[in-house]
Design brief:
With 72 residues, this protein is mainly alpha-helical. It has one domain. It is built from two helices and two strands; from the N terminus they run αββα. The termini are far apart.
């Protein structure tokens, strides 16, 4: 089975979107370099890439709920 993912492309998309966020006075993604896997970056844009299988794990949910607490 072939698995195709592009975490580098996802990171670059977050960086590109950050430029638009900055036009409106927002932080965007607070990083210039792609982090190692399992290291989350959160500004007004968040980047989350972890090692392991393609599934939702407690680690994923902890990250998502932290973001929800921050914005809701």
């Amino acid at each position: 089975m072939l698995y195709v993912a592009d975490p580098k492309g996802e990171f670059l998309a977050c960086k590109a979107a950050s430029e638009v966020y900055k036009l409106f006075g927002s932080q965007g993604l607070p990083a210039d370099e792609m982090p190692l896997p399992d290291v989350n970056i959160s500004g007004d844009i968040s980047f989350h890439c972890r090692t392991g299988e393609h599934e939702q794990t407690p680690q994923d949910w902890a990250h998502y709920l932290d973001l929800a607490d921050r914005y809701l």
